Amino acid sequence: MGYFISFGHNNVEVKGVNKRRKKADPLLIAILIGVFIVALTFDLLKWTFNIPGIAWVATAGVLVLIYFARSYLNERKRARMIEYRRQYLQKHGELKQLKQMSPNEFEQYISDLFVQMGYNAFVTEPNGKPCEDLIVSFDDFFATVVCRNGENITVTPEEVRKCESSLEQSNASIAFFITTGDFEEQIHSQSVKLINGKDLMKLINEVTAETKGGQMYQPFKLLQIQ
After folding, report:
1. CA 192 to CA 189: how far, in whole Å?
2. What's the mean pLDDT when you consider all of the chain?
3. Which residues contact 218 (CB under 8 A, 6 or more apart)?
4. What are the residue boundaries of the Restriction endonuclease type IV Mrr domain, all occurrences included (predicted)?
5. If you ran DSSP here, which 8-state letter would residue 148 be given?
6. Model confidence at 150, in pLDDT bands (50, 70, 90)?
7. How many CB atoms lie within 10 A of CB 106?
8. How far is CA 159 from CA 75, 101, 129, 182, in A?
9. C-alpha angle with apex 124: 176 to 184, nearest 5 degrees?
10. Domain range spanning residue 127?
11. Disulfide: which of 53, 130, 173, 178 matches 162 by Cβ 3.0-4.6 Å?
12. Is residue 116 part of a domain?
């Protein structure tokens, strides 16, 4: 490698003349890697066929043991999550507390309640639709949920009718209208399940009792609430 120094305008510049390096051929590298993999596979197969029968039985036993151990640990983890959620729902499940929650906190609480009952549930982004605070599902079952909490709430027929109309657009099986207050007496709906404060307390108590210790709750019991 040679160097030269040039002077100009009181600056010193050093430049190097490098020889070009020849790049490795990607095709050659790929061929070498392929040969290595084939050779490794051949040796592995050769070693496998030389394993005695008792070794195969032992290997199968270990794999079965690993499978059941993993299933057991996953079940324990799931049960702990159910129990942890149950304690949270029970701790914050007094009607007075629910009334004092912010709308977002109440929606998240109801979402957790649905999850505890075995549903898939999530809080939706604000979209202007009157009955889609939550989306819940279970297999082919799909429903929307509207949540209303606070002091002195009385749900009007007009609010329920808006939910009925939104069902036609969402293709949901049913809608749930859940409130810490109550509904006007003349409200009746075939497509919207009405759950007032009293019903909500009953549901929370039932869910937290049945899921104690990590047990599962039967999702469609929710539809039996009167």
Report:
1. 6
2. 82
3. 118
4. 98-204
5. E
6. very high
7. 22
8. 42, 21, 12, 12
9. 30
10. 92-224
11. 130
12. yes
DSSP code at position 112: H
Helix/strand/coil for 153? coil
Q: Sign (positive/negative) of CA torsion 191, 194, 199, 201?
A: positive
User: Which two three-digit tokens encode residue 141?
Assistant: 């079952």
Residue 5 Cα to chain centre, angstroms: 66
- Give the burial class of 19: count Cβ atoms within 10 A of its Cβ; 0-12 exposed, 13-18 middle, 19 or more buried: exposed
Burial class (CB in 10 A: 0-12, 13-18, 19+), 175: buried
One-letter amino acid identity for 160? Answer: V
Distance in angstroms (rounded) separating the CA atoms of residues 218 and 116:
10
At 211, list the tokens.
Answer: 């899921």
Convert the pLDDT of each residue in 14-42 to its tens digit: 444 444 555 667 788 888 898 889 888 87
Total domains present in the chain:
1
Which own/partner pairs from 91-94 qualify as long-range (CB within 8 Å, at least 24 positions apart)?
Answer: 93/201, 93/204, 93/205, 93/208
CB atoms within 10 A of CB 86: 23
